[in-house]
Amino acid sequence: DSGVTQTPKHLITATGQRVTLRCSPRSGDLSVYWYQQSLDQGLQFLIQYYNGEERAKGNILERFSAQQFPDLHSELNLSSLELGDSALYFCASSPTDNEQFFGPGTRLTVL
Amino acid sequence: DQQVKQNSPSLSVQEGRISILNCDYTNSMFDYFLWYKKYPAEGPTFLISISSIKDKNEDGRFTVFLNKSAKHLSLHIVPSQPGDSAVYFCAASRYNFNKFYFGSGTKLNVKP
After folding, report:
1. Which of A7, A43, A45, A46 is the best substitution to test chain B (most B C-beta atoms within 10 A)?
2. Chain B residue with Cα closest to A3
């Protein structure tokens, strides 16, 4: 158990819909990272927050947004969902810039 | 643009033998490299890392080798155990740069 929790574990929705994925980092970790893993692909870095502020951005679509709240939990919002958005979404938290602890992931299926 | 590549999607090894997982990268600015292990239905877990000032780092049965001139790193597992069966991801970053680039993973199967 990494100490990072993600909810929900599974999410099935329809194209055009909007969903919110939630991540609670390990106690004391200020950084949260979001990754997308599509079928047979590596983890694609989406975005990083540090203590409530956006710190780094990767291949995140404009339809996607994220935020980190004062209690350090983070949410990833995915809107206007397309079939290709079906993937595993991982959150990781970090006490330093070079060590990450991953949550179990949320599997999103868009039908 | 895939900056980190793992060209072998799968590898099968007999228990007790050596497992060698390979990873190539294209960005010469990367100076920190990591290996993660992932079991089904779990998130990746950190295994071992190496910075570009070294060419080898060992941790028990796991050793990572870095060849900067070839932009290549490898993970050696000796001896391999059935519990090592998992997907292994390599990742690279610039130190303190906050962005990590992952390969597509290699599924290791260690046969008893």
Report:
1. A43
2. B43
| B40 Cβ under 8 Å from any chain A Cβ | no
Q: How far apart are CA B18 and CA A72, in angstroms?
A: 42
Phi and psi of B82, rounded to 5°?
-55, -30
Q: Which residues of B touch A21 (CB under 8 A)?
A: none
In the predicted model, is pLDDT for residue A58 greater than 90? no
Per-residue pLDDT tens digits for B6-65: 999 999 999 999 999 999 999 999 999 999 999 988 899 999 999 999 999 999 999 999
In the DSSP assignment, the letter for residue B83 is G
Burial B88-102 (b: 16+ CB within 10 A, else e): bbbbbbbeeebbbbb
Encoded amino acid at B112, one letter: P
Spatial distance between the Cα atoms of B84 and B47, rounded to a whole number of angstroms: 11
Cβ atoms A95, A7 nearer than 8 A: no
Question: Which residues from chain B sit within 8 angstroms of residue A101, using beta carbons?
Answer: 46
Query: Which residue of B lies nearest to A31 if distances are taken between CA atoms?
Result: B98
Instruction: Compute the C-alpha angle B24/B63/B4, nearest 5°.
Output: 15
